[in-house]
Amino acid sequence: MSSEEEQTQGPAVFDSLPYYDNDLERDPGLKDKAERLIARELKPHKELHPKVPPPLDLFSKNPLLQAELARVESHQPLPPLDTTRYQLPGPSSSQAGEKDWDLAVKNAHAQLEHQRLRQTNLALLQNYGSNAWRIHNFQLESTAKLLDKTVEGLKQLTVEVNRDRKNFQTTTGSQLTSLETKWTELISNVLQIEMANVALEAEIDRLNKKEVELAGL
Q1: What Cα–Cα distance (Å) separates residue 51 from each residue in 22, 48, 55, 168?
Q2: Percentage of the chain lying above the pLDDT 70 cut
Q3: What's the whole-number average pLDDT of the chain?
Q4: Cα–Cα distance, 114 to 106 (Å, whole number)
Q5: What is the per-residue DSSP string for 70-86?
Q6: Which pLDDT tens digit goes with each residue over 59-71?
Q7: CB–CB of 69/59 below 8 Å?
Q8: Out of the domains of life, which is the source (predicted)?
Q9: Rg of the chain over CA atoms, in angstroms?
């Protein structure tokens, strides 16, 4: 519904006071109907609500991550690591030439460089990793405390809103009960007055008829 339609139709008006009304207690059939409606709403629906956004296409620009996500969703085991890249095999043929030995030497240089980088990373991690981890944990704890505080504030606000709503509905319900009792009394008085008027009219008709009979005598 657009804002123009809402302005045209005006704000919605709800005349229900759930903290005061006891229609369900007075009408068992209505309670059963409400329970059936609630059970129907709690059942899983195959079709999502129109306002629910469509599912996200994760990693649409990264086929490797898409393949890994598909593997995790299908509960497939992680493929074993390829350890051949960490080995230093020589030429497999006994008649290897200079080109084969050059490839083996380049592989050895690559492995040595990889090990050197690993040692450098381990040294950096040993020197600075603990402090970085502490700072990261401190930031996470601060964020968690902030979120907990926000949640507690929202819970307190929810409790206050429900308390105010309950007090308002209870007060309004008492006023409605008083007005309904007064209205019933007034209706009863009006009915009594109407019955008295009918009785008086009948008595007047009887007296008029008797007057006419006496005048005739």
Answers
A1: 34, 8, 12, 33
A2: 92
A3: 85
A4: 12
A5: HHHHTTPPPPPP-GGGG
A6: 889 999 999 999 9
A7: yes
A8: Eukaryota
A9: 43
